[in-house]
Design brief:
With 510 residues, this protein is α/β, with parallel strands linked by helices. Helices cover 33% and strands 25% of the residues. The chain has 17 helices and 22 strands. The strands form five sheets. A six-stranded mixed β-sheet has the order 6-7-8-3-9-10, with helices on both faces. Strand 14 (312-317) and strand 15 (320-321) form a beta hairpin. It is globular. The structure holds adenosine-5'-diphosphate and magnesium ion (MG). Residues 7-242, 259-506 form the ABC transporter domain.
Length: 510
């Protein structure tokens, strides 16, 4: 006889005001399996898991654990039922040690001291058994993100979780850390534990799950065996239409050098050198992709070139020198020179959230002749222009009068892209072009970037997504600790080599 599902959800419904985040969701997760849940942003994945972990209460529906109906009013009840959760944003206490974090909440405070020795032993055993390699006495704030995540997992195991839920666990990890996490998950599965893995990365689903469920607009639309599906099939089930996963592009036909950067250096307010002598070139009609783990200087590079941050060194655009500090080095001067910039941090730098879409479209370009009538801004021209841009970039809802904050992340992104791409730059700087963007919109954004390249423009792309770097770039430079570790051609390298370079190790000889 087959055992009952480790988890069974029956007809779960949950609304937030007018938003129906979970609609009539039923799901069975079999014990000892890794069950993936995929879906676009806002599909309802985190809501469903938060219900299972007692963070939200379902409006209706039932939860069965090991075949028995179980009430989960809070996370204490979830832990009692053997469920552990690793959140998208960790919930560790920064200035406490690993041991303190693991024990915290699991034991009564006043009994903490005598049990610490025992807890340390238990924790050390767990860490050894699962090859997690974390020091019980290390402070959380001194650990890498990958190690912090392991602490979250240890915390769940310490509480004897049989069911582990991970919500988008690899978003913050390097490829090597993600591989390590997957080894840990395989080990847990071999022990008979049940794992629910939420991700929007198809590759991860294919690599590690046994079964995969697809969510779309609050509904659980399909559950299939991983061996019987493909990335293409899953993408289509997620989006609900045909999508192009590979970027469809002809080989680049690079022309003259547009951007030349020599010995670029930036020192931040704390005296830390963020860029330590960057040299690179980008030619007309080519995409140079910068790969790297976030925080290794890529953002600083974009900010310097975009006129947001001062630097030393030499930068030329079409053979003309650009000022790197003082007057004439700001973003407006850069736009005049022919550089446009889709910043990584769109909320802070790309959009004024309280302003309407049409105002945002003109942002930075309001003094162009086509938007002016004498000395006044021609708001009607700007509004009509926005209307046309929104149509071309398929911004939804198609309403130039809606404030930027009322669009979803993907649509905000399209507003910034429309503005910067259609400004017809010689050089486009683009940071994390598809962060927080759904698969359908990713396809669209990638096509626009390739079109711009094919129109003979130079493009400097920064992304922490290696898939994106590999599929868009004509050349790839890897950054680590403020330096370029090396350059590779996409056809002559792979994720493993790039991953090593991203971690500061030399790749194979080119
Ligand atoms: P996913 O994890 O698949 O990206 P979520 O479960 O986070 O999706 O969100 C599903 C929908 O519910 C979205 O439209 C989101 O805006 C909405 N939502 C989620 N949490 C809340 C909340 N606490 N209050 C209001 N709306 C929410
Ligand atoms: Mg989520």
């Amino acid at each position: 006889m087959t055992p009952p599902p480790a988890i069974e959800l029956r007809r779960i419904c949950k609304s937030f005001g007018p938003v129906q985040a979970n609609k009539d969701i039923s799901l069975k997760v079999m014990p000892g399996t890794i069950h993936g849940i995929i879906g676009e942003n806002g599909a309802g994945k985190s809501t469903l898991m938060s219900i299972l972990y007692g963070f939200y209460k379902a409006d209706s529906g039932e939860i069965l654990i090991g075949g028995r109906e179980t009430q989960i009013p809070d996370s204490q009840a979830a832990i009692k039922a053997g469920i552990g959760m690793v959140f998208q944003h960790f919930k560790l206490v920064e200035n406490f040690s690993v041991l303190e974090n693991v024990v915290l909440g699991a034991e009564d405070g006043s009994f903490l001291r005598p049990t610490l020795a025992r807890a340390r032993k238990h924790l050390t055993d767990l860490a050894r058994d699962y090859e997690m390699n974390v020091d019980p006495d290390a402070k959380i704030e001194d650990l890498s993100v990958g190690h912090q995540q392991r602490v979250e997992i240890l915390k769940a195991l310490y509480r004897e979780a049989n069911i582990l839920i991970l919500d988008e666990p690899t978003g913050v990890l390097t490829p090597a850390e993600a591989d390590h996490l997957f080894r840990i998950l395989r080990g847990l599965k071999a022990e008979g534990k049940t794992i629910i893995l939420i991700t929007h990365k198809l590759r991860e689903i294919m690599e590690i799950t046994d079964t995969v469920s697809v969510m779309r607009r609050g509904e659980m639309t399909d559950t299939v065996k991983t061996a019987e599906t493909s990335p293409q099939d899953l993408a289509e089930r997620m989006v609900g239409r045909k999508v192009l996963l590979r970027v469809d592009k002809a080989p680049a036909r690079p022309g003259k050098t547009v951007l030349e950067v020599k010995d670029l250096r930036v020192t931040d307010g704390q005296g830390v050198e963020r860029l330590r002598g960057i040299d690179l070139t980008v030619r007309a009609g080519e995409i140079l992709g910068i790969a790297g783990v976030a925080g290794n200087g890529q953002s600083d590079l974009l900010d310097v070139l975009g006129g947001i941050r001062a630097a030393t060194g030499a930068v030329t655009l079409n053979d003309a020198a650009l000022s790197l500090s003082g007057p004439g080095s700001d973003a407006r001067a850069r736009r005049r020179a022919g550089i446009t910039h889709v910043p990584e941090d769109r909320h802070r730098l790309g959009l004024i959230l309280d302003f309407k879409a049409w105002e945002n479209t003109g942002f930075g370009y309001q003094d162009l002749p086509k938007y002016c009538q004498g000395l006044m801004m021609d708001n009607r021209a700007l509004r009509e222009d926005t209307d046309a841009k929104m149509a071309r970039f398929d911004v939804r809802p198609h309403d130039p009068n809606l404030a930027a904050k009322n669009f979803s992340g993907g649509n905000q992104q399209k507003i910034v892209l429309a503005r910067e791409i259609e400004a017809d730059p010689d050089l486009l700087l683009i940071g994390q072009p598809t962060r927080g963007v759904d698969i359908g919109a990713i396809e669209f954004i990638h096509q626009r970037i390739v079109e711009l390249r094919d129109a003979g423009k130079a493009i400097l792309l920064v992304s922490v997504e290696l898939d994106e770097i590999l599929s868009l770039s004509d050349r790839i430079a890897v950054m680590f600790d403020g330096r370029i570790m090396g350059e590779r051609l996409p056809g002559q390298t792979d994720e493993t080599e790039l991953g090593l370079m991203m971690a500061g190790m030399e790749g194979r000889a080119a």
